[in-house]
């Protein structure tokens, strides 16, 4: 979302291209694919560079030389980025799994005397990036993904955990909390068996309290411009948009971070507490999230509107998860605005997975409408227990990359 120190693509992967042909060709492939929007010639060039990348990484893995593992890890991450941009094909998941296998090999080497430090450099950044992609991709698929639920994936020892990172568009502590919500949702979905461990209600309440008390920060931005549970959302968003004191990138990060915090509460209410989209608590979160998302201007024609923040060219992908969650738990009244924002993201952002997100949401809405039509009794509050499990999506529809 913003090119700060959390951008390992620039600080860690690009330098590797000087010594690794696989990394070099993977960067060229992603770059050419982004350029195809301006010239169709680049699409063929992107596929050609991708083929070269695959050839090189296969050779690296076959030889399995310890010194080449860093390059192979960086290449696997870049291939994942390519597949996400190319319409979110299922192949992105294979590259993520391959990158995690390489990461484990590197971790094993480093624990047995390698000079590289696990808590710094490419391994630490890749660890965090892969977990970020996994949580985004598996938020709505209730399968067990063990490692990404560990807060140590997120909480860097040398960084303020409440500071919004440019790469993720939110803070580390928020991503750790979302991973924890996903873990609890997975556990509660499993049938109770002898010896199984239940999640106490107190733990769920602690997560909600964490989200309520979280104030995500951006460096050098005064506290009056930060969004939290205690600030009036609409007034503060207008204050941010109209301010000359807050830089453009900081405005975007504040809005994106708050949109994800509100979406995390929706995720908790829907996947764990099973609240209906029409429940008052859910409606409040959807409304506040949409205020933040609408304040981000997705098109140049809105650049002069009061209270809006013009979305930078690099500021697209972290908005997908909040948009998707808001769509899952919205009512028919909110759908046109959500579809409009997705359309603008697709037009402006060169992100192929936006189209897949839109199609999945439309399928969810169709099934929700059918379920509501067939339901002849029960209040909106009582229908909450049926809200999350019946999304009408088969396992083959997932995982959907939202990173």
TrEMBL record:
It is found in: Nucleus. The keyword Nucleus applies. The keyword Hydrolase does not apply. The chain crosses the membrane at residues 12-35. InterPro entries: Fun_TF (IPR021858). Keywords: Membrane, Nucleus, Transmembrane, Transmembrane helix. This is Transcription factor domain-containing protein. It comes from Exophiala sideris.
């Amino acid at each position: 979302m913003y090119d700060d120190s959390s951008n390992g693509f620039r600080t860690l992967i690009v330098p590797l291209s000087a010594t690794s042909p696989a990394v070099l060709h993977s960067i060229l492939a992603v770059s050419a694919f982004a350029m195809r929007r301006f010239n169709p010639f680049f699409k063929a060039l992107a596929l050609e560079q991708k083929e070269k990348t695959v050839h090189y990484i296969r050779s690296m893995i076959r030889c399995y030389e310890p010194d080449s593992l860093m390059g192979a890890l960086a290449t696997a991450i870049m291939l994942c980025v390519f597949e996400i941009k190319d319409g979110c094909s299922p192949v992105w998941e294979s590259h993520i799994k391959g990158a995690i296998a390489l990461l484990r090999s590197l971790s094993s080497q480093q624990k047995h005397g390698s000079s590289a430090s696990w808590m710094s450099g490419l391994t630490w950044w890749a660890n965090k990036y892969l977990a970020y992609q996994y949580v985004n991709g598996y938020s709505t698929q209730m399968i067990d993904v063990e490692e990404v639920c560990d807060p140590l994936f997120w909480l860097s020892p040398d960084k303020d955990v409440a500071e919004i990172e440019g790469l993720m568009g939110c803070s580390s502590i928020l991503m750790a909390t979302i991973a924890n919500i996903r873990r609890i949702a997975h556990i509660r979905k499993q049938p109770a068996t002898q010896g199984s461990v239940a999640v106490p209600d107190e733990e769920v309440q602690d997560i909600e309290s964490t989200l309520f008390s979280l104030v995500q920060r951006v460096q050098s931005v005064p506290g009056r411009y930060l969004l939290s549970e205690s600030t009036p959302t609409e007034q503060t968003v207008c204050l941010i948009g109209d301010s000359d004191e807050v830089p453009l990138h900081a405005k975007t990060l504040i809005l994106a971070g708050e949109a994800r915090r509100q979406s995390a509460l929706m995720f908790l209410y829907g996947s764990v507490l099973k609240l209906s989209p029409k429940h008052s608590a859910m409606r409040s979160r959807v409304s506040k999230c949409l205020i933040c998302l609408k304040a981000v201007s997705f098109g140049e024609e809105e650049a002069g509107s009061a209270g809006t923040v013009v979305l930078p060219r690099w500021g697209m992908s972290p908005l997908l998860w909040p948009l998707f969650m808001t769509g899952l738990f919205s009512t028919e009244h909110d759908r046109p605005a959500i579809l409009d924002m997705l359309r603008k993201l697709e037009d402006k952002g060169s992100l192929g997975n936006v189209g897949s997100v839109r199609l999945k949401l439309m399928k969810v809405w169709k099934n929700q409408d059918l379920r509501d039509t067939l339901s002849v009794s029960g209040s909106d509050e009582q229908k909450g227990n049926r809200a999350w499990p019946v999304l009408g999506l088969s396992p083959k529809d997932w995982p959907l990359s939202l990173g």
